[in-house]
Amino acid sequence: MSDPDAGNSLGFLLTDVARLFRQQLEKAVIDAGIDLTPGEIRALSHVARHEGSRQAVLAERMGVEPMTLSAYLDRLETRGLVKRSPDPNDRRAKVINTTDKADNVFANARPITLEVYDRITRGLSDGERDEIERLLSHVRENMTSEPIIVSDDVQRKPVPIA
Q1: Considering the domain boundaries, does residue 107 fall inside one?
Q2: For residue 81, how many C-alpha atoms fall within 13 Å in the half-sphere facing its CB?
Q3: Residues 6 or more apart whose Cβ sits within 8 Å of residue 160
Q4: What pLDDT is stored for residue 91 in this prediction?
Q5: What is residue 44's DSSP assignment?
Q6: Considering its fold, how many domains does the chain have in total?
Q7: I need a labelling partner for 139 at 20 to 30 A (CA). Which of 12, 51, 74, 100 fits?
Q8: Which of 37, 23, 61 is nearest to 159 (CA)?
Q9: Given the DSSP bridges, would you call strands 82-87 and 154-156 parallel, antiparallel or unpaired?
Q10: InterPro entries per the record (predicted)?
Q11: Which domain holds residue 49?
Q12: Taking a C-beta distance cutoff of 8 angstroms, is the pair 63, 48 a contact?
């Protein structure tokens, strides 16, 4: 078992790799001249991945404050890339969906994300890539299925961050 205090512990590696991946992807998006901020692209990607989700759920899945997501969604809605609609189960809440116009953004961003993915996995076989994805999926499942202890007598089940 690795030493959790060491620089190559699982927690350190996960955090560091996630940070470096996000930096490389954001730089590639900016260099490609896609006319959205990295945060807007990230928000748009989460909306596409979780079509019809409530705004509050999307904010939690992204790990951002609801007001931060709201600002991203305001700009994306102004550009016609997302649409907010009343939740059919609770008209006070809004659900978010992408529009057909968002498909163009994804078509332009896809080659960029594939290039970054290829660069960060350079030297790994297809089997090793598959194994990393399998193992990280398992770790994510562990973290999203276990109750979080808030205090000695209160537990809550986290919203999956998939």
Answers
A1: yes
A2: 23
A3: 61, 144
A4: 82
A5: H
A6: 1
A7: 51
A8: 61
A9: unpaired
A10: HTH_MarR-typ, MarR/SlyA-like, Tscrpt_reg_MarR-type_CS, WH-like_DNA-bd_sf, WH_DNA-bd_sf
A11: 10-120
A12: no
CA angle 83, 101, 26 (to 5 degrees): 90
55 domain-assigned: yes
Q: Tokens for 27? A: 């730089």
- Are the C-beta atoms of residues 160 and 144 closer than 8 Å to each other? yes
Query: Distance between CA 39 and CA 69 in Å, rounded?
Result: 9
C-alpha–C-alpha distance, residues 2 and 10, integer Å: 8
Residue bearing tokens 């978010």: 96
CA 159/CA 145 separation, integer angstroms? 9
pTM: 0.71
Answer whether 76's CB lies under 8 Å from 44's CB: yes
Q: Using CA atoms, how far apart are residues 96 and 85, in angstroms rounded to an integer?
A: 7
Which CATH number characterizes residue 87's domain? 1.10.10.10
pLDDT digits (tens, 9 = 90+) for 35-89: 888 889 889 999 999 999 999 899 988 889 999 999 999 999 999 999 999 988 8
| Greatest Cα-to-Cα distance within the chain, rounded to the nearest angstrom | 51
100 pLDDT more than 90: yes
Instruction: Determine phi and psi for 159, rounding to 5 degrees.
Output: -75, 130
Element (H, E) at 87: strand 82-87
Classify residue 140: in a domain, yes or no. Answer: no
